[in-house]
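Quick start: what a row looks like.
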Amino acid sequence: MAVPGTEVYYNPVCPLNDNIVTITHLHEFNDGKGVYVEFYNNKNLEGNPDVTGYYDALNFSTFGAYGFADGVNTEDLSIRVTGKYTATFTGEMKYNINTDNGYLLKINGETVEEAAAGGGRGRRGGVQYKSFNVVEGQTYDVMIEYKRGTDHFATFKADICERKPVEYETVAKDVADADVIIVIGGISAQMEGEGGDKATIELPEVQRDLIRAMHATGKPVVVVNCSGSAMAFGCLEGQYDALIQAWYPGQGGSQALAEVIFGDHNPGGKLPVTFYASNDDLPDFLDYSMENRTYRYFRGVPQYAFGYGLSYTTFEVGKGKLSKKSMKADGSVKVTVPVQNTGDREGTETIQVYVKALDYAEAPIKSLKGFAKVSLKPGEKTKAEIVLDGESFEYYDPSIDELSTRPGRYEILYGTSSLDKDLKSLGFVVKL
């Protein structure tokens, strides 16, 4: 990384949307080996196990053509989980077991639960926790048995764990010596995805509380938001020093994120959606008009605008020129925009061109019609060129019930985002 000798302290403070922290103990079973799992290629735990192994996590499924383990059937199968655990605390030990066909749980040879069904399996449903008591220093023999059901997919997921409230003050003490605090959060497929939308664009409350607690330390706070859609950060205004929108970055995302945070890579991304400040900026759910929807019709001030994005360098956009002042519907016009990197790092800027109709009240406020991405070394200059044709001036024509190039007066807006303050204007006319 770009900062030699940097030490990174990692703390999984809280779940995405729960103020209770889950501390798993599976890895402590069997003197630190993890729980022992026996896989049988039959549904009744008969004979000798076909596959065995130690695991510190229990998350098995045949969904997506996967199997529980190499050499284990996907249809005829059963498993037995065993392990000895020496309690490191006194109190309630929580457990959750999620299967497609029920399970049997025994502790010290006594049946604690025999479930005919496997509990809540909904993709966005909450995990169901139950508990048994433990005493520090005492050893407990735990056994879980599972037999494959008749569902299309086999599922066996389980955890034995503690559940504690998030301790923001403790976290603040842990990072007291840090130079910068990085909070990585957002949402997941538990809260949005195919077949289900999130109920709010606000960050979950537990994450908002965490960011505020980290800001209260007086240290710079960088927030990394992972989501597949726009989120609202208005209630956190002034509570963080930088925000990175990481979307759902995939398997190489951590490396890419580290390179951006530590300065090895200069980011140049631009938002493809509008980030509103709060739920209050959105129209009523049952309002199907376009009023105040997307940057094209939103009359308020977004928190982060469509097309917006920062870089570790700076750019100056000069006075643009049009190749002509007017054109016919079948013509075209070239927009030329001078750009200079005025910072001390090589970087990329995206020059955006929007069109605003002046003679049609029903037209959008502005619409993106073209863009050009330029990469420049420090001090380097170039000219971005974007060509607009007749389609760039198309609007709905009720007389023909179709889109058509509309004659009239226009503003051609160019700049680095859809915000008015980031745009400059050139007058233009489309003729019959």
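That is the whole record. The helical segments are 29-32, 168-174, 205-215, 253-261, 294-297. The CA atoms of residues 125 and 364 lie 40 Å apart.
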